[in-house]
Amino acid sequence: MAREPSGTAPEDVFFREVDEEVRKDQLAGFWSRYGRWIVIAVGAGLVALAGFLWWREEQIRKVGVLSEEYSAALQGLEIGNAKAAQEIDRFASGDYGGYTALARFTKASRAVENGDNATALAEYKMLAADTKLPQPLRDLATITAVRVEYDTLAPADVVTRLKPLAQPGAPWFGVAGEMLAVAYMAEGKPELAGPIFAAISSDETIAPSLRQRAQQLAASLGSLPDVAPAADAPAAEPTTGKN
């Protein structure tokens, strides 16, 4: 027992010791009543934490395996490996998250390469209508479908499909905007096409090749902003008419 400071009344010491003993008895009673359940709860929490950590590691491992398998399948397609095509089919028809969507896009693209536009369009339209996919992927499917059948569509149909997606700041503004502007030109509306080309040419998030092409078209339509001469540029000398 700790030594009490001098001047402490004997009755204070007695009551303090009694209070300590009461607290010890209460703690012992609490532990005897609830200690087993506390141990069980802590154990269950540790098991749950371990399970979560295992699940997370397993998901990471599976993603890594899927990534390797999908990359191998794509490389096989490039060299005409028939088994690789079967692997892409497996991804496209399975439930592999983002890899399933990528495989479906790959299948549609290969159909275009093989001249089977009907199959490609059917796949792109299904992708565009798939509400489980992120909206940017659905928009990409819509844009790609328009590109596949661009030559057979009326300009008005192109405008109807692409105008909502050809807005500055939209994910696919460059690609959709270029096709929309060309459709406006086909309709005889260069005043609508020019500003779109100008907006594409000034958007630094768009690929340089597309921006350069848009700049040339905007310039040909007179839609680029006028460039003011530099303040320190020498003034042109007046023409006197003398040789």
Automatic annotation (TrEMBL):
Could you tell me which InterPro entries the record lists for this protein? SecYEG/CpoB_TPR (IPR018704), YfgM (IPR026039)
Task: Provide the protein name.
Answer: Ancillary SecYEG translocon subunit/Cell division coordinator CpoB TPR domain-containing protein
A GO cellular component annotation here is: plasma membrane
Ancillary SecYEG translocon subunit/Cell division coordinator CpoB TPR domain span: 30-163
Instruction: Give yes or no: UniProt keyword DNA-binding.
Output: no
The family database entries (Pfam families) matched by this protein are listed as: TPR_21
Spans traversing the lipid bilayer: 34-55
Where, per UniProt, does this protein localize?
Answer: Cell membrane; Membrane
Task: Tell me the keywords, alphabetical order.
Answer: Cell membrane, Chaperone, Membrane, Transmembrane, Transmembrane helix
Q: Which organism is it from?
A: Sphingosinicella microcystinivorans
Q: Give a GO molecular function annotation for the protein.
A: protein-containing complex binding
Q: Where on the tree of life does the source sit, at the highest rank?
A: Bacteria
| KW Membrane (keyword) present | yes
Q: How does it sit in the membrane?
A: Single-pass membrane protein
Q: What is the lineage of its organism?
A: Bacteria, Pseudomonadati, Pseudomonadota, Alphaproteobacteria, Sphingomonadales
